[in-house]
Amino acid sequence: MAVAVSPLAPKTYPDLPPVDGVRFATGAAGIRYQGRTDVLLALFDKGTEVAGVFTRSKCPSAPVDWCKTKLEGGKARALVVNSGNANAFTGKLGAEAVKTTASLAAKALDVPQSEIFLASTGVIGEPLDASKFEGVLEPLRDAASPDGALDAARAIMTTDTYPKVAVARTEIDGVPIVITGIAKGAGMIAPDMATMLSFIFTDAPIDAPVLQSLLTRGVQGSFNSITVDSDTSTSDTLLLFATGAAAHRGAPRIKTKGDRKLKPFRKALDALLLDLAHQVVKDGEGARKFVEIVVEGAASPGAARKIARSIADSPLVKTAIAGEDANWGRIVMAVGKAGEKAERDKLAIWFGDIRVAYKGMRDPAYDEAAVSRLMQADKIDIRVDLGLGEGSARLWTCDLTKAYVEINGDYRS
Amino acid sequence: MAVAVSPLAPKTYPDLPPVDGVRFATGAAGIRYQGRTDVLLALFDKGTEVAGVFTRSKCPSAPVDWCKTKLEGGKARALVVNSGNANAFTGKLGAEAVKTTASLAAKALDVPQSEIFLASTGVIGEPLDASKFEGVLEPLRDAASPDGALDAARAIMTTDTYPKVAVARTEIDGVPIVITGIAKGAGMIAPDMATMLSFIFTDAPIDAPVLQSLLTRGVQGSFNSITVDSDTSTSDTLLLFATGAAAHRGAPRIKTKGDRKLKPFRKALDALLLDLAHQVVKDGEGARKFVEIVVEGAASPGAARKIARSIADSPLVKTAIAGEDANWGRIVMAVGKAGEKAERDKLAIWFGDIRVAYKGMRDPAYDEAAVSRLMQADKIDIRVDLGLGEGSARLWTCDLTKAYVEINGDYRS
User: Where are the alpha helices (DSSP H) in B144-242?
Assistant: First the structure.
């Protein structure tokens, strides 16, 4: 089935500058199909620090288990990613495949196994034949180049209709720093996090525990605030690699998370995470609309988040948006089913700037034609004020179209 | 948009016998469209006891608020149901519309307002013009007949493709008792409960508190164990009316819920509730497959229920079933995202009799062709054994098809 590029795809890709200390190469290992690019190798200079966040699924993939353990060391020399097979729910065979891959990589790259990170995406439950990596990594090692980030983003795509890349430039103590990131993910996207792989690279000299704190905080308002279909993958992996190469140009090493010199970096990282997270939603399977949901006036931030999630995940809300139907009654339904405090007679709802419901009933000034025009845009803004307290939350989602069902339904019959 | 009758619809309807003490009439009040049957009136003889369960939405409709209050008296003389407008999220106007309707009904039927029950289904957020009931109820009162149950079921349909009716015959202390029930609901169906109206009628002489206990227990394994799209309506209403007329034929009055003479009645009621609940799922918007999900071996019954719900609500599981794709990896995903205890290496999954996954990986004997044949049936059975404890749960759902998106997407653009 040919799938057209999402109409919400970015019109242009940014030039991805090299990150000092990072090199990429991609190749074909024949994981699922012959002759298709399905392996990404990223090499890091000695001294690279690493942080990561992972799926909260109770059935994580074998590579997720592997990365969690290796993260304890805080050091990274290589990242090996394959598409075509998620190596998830593959039991002992999966754990063995991961060990084999790491062992082959350690030998080919001459780095310790404990500093090799692995990620896999693709079919769940099929054993991954790790022997296919044999002889594949050596030529990749030799071909690795600082300029391969866009190719890297392409190599990890599955049902994605476009590669997801982002770049941010910042400084630490006046020394220029670059951050680049790639991501994949289109379906099975929900907090926390998504069928989502994302890898961020920077030359900033930041110790692993500080990196971890930046990342854990940064994903809250970005990757953990998006949902495509409420389904959570077994494989979600987000890794942040910091080579520290900017130290050669005078950047001081950051060793504590309270260091004031971190401020611009944190801001730049947060913006880059949000950029990538939005790109994932905009490539949501079958998506035609990018939807921002803001909930305000809730009893608590947690209540606001739960209500926003209830709206964002509601099939009835999402199909209405697909149909460009300003069906705010379904928003009321979704608020009501969230199980959090809500008083019908205090609730107000906006589509864009237009208030459609107020004090428990239709806004007297509500003009359906005006809202209908607004619903034709690519970006839909929904705002709900519960009128109860100070809790607020912001989430992003997409519409639910027939194409989603088509992409995921297979329709073999 | 013309919608064909669900392929899962029952091939025949049972003959609905009269229930002594109950009469029905249907008519057109022009609530949303002119000339369409949109009002159901049910009349009950004096002494009829009533019990009810309702949506747990935090934004319930005005008729739900009304019924909850009136239920305290435990007595019913009339039920007025309209389709075309849900009178939900209509604030003060909604409460006034309910009062106006009850007042018109009390006058037309010469019964106390406190013994009149109301339900509405249709569009949310539009004010209901209750003056449309004026002059409508008197002719219905005069026309009411004991034989109108099937017409009653038809009158309350919205996006339903077939009327839902059920009948059960039982006895209390050797005296024959009849129970009949009608239901509507097709989308916005999820525990607890559904965009669902259901009314059950019996001639059994059972006191209201006992009826309430029977109903509250009975919905757990039936109406509260179904989901179409995880969306919960603001209007869900299930009322059980017991006229007590069988007392004239010698049935003893049941005054305590522990009364042993209740046993056959409870069993018959539970079966009827399950029958109606299944009919609702089988008419799920766009449904082509009826799916039973059994979760066993969970750490607790609550955990089993949450995992079953996670599977039943997963768009990726539901689209796979629509595509007749035995994609058990998505079942693993749904188990993993439920947030309950699950050990990958103890998990086993069956489609029908075929075990597809065992001990953390694909069953060695798994034959995809055999499972694919099985997926072509109308009824799909999924069983998951977590291998952890004794907790089990059983839920019913349907597949997610393009027709669901079409029905709910409106596609006005």
Answer: 149-155, 208-220
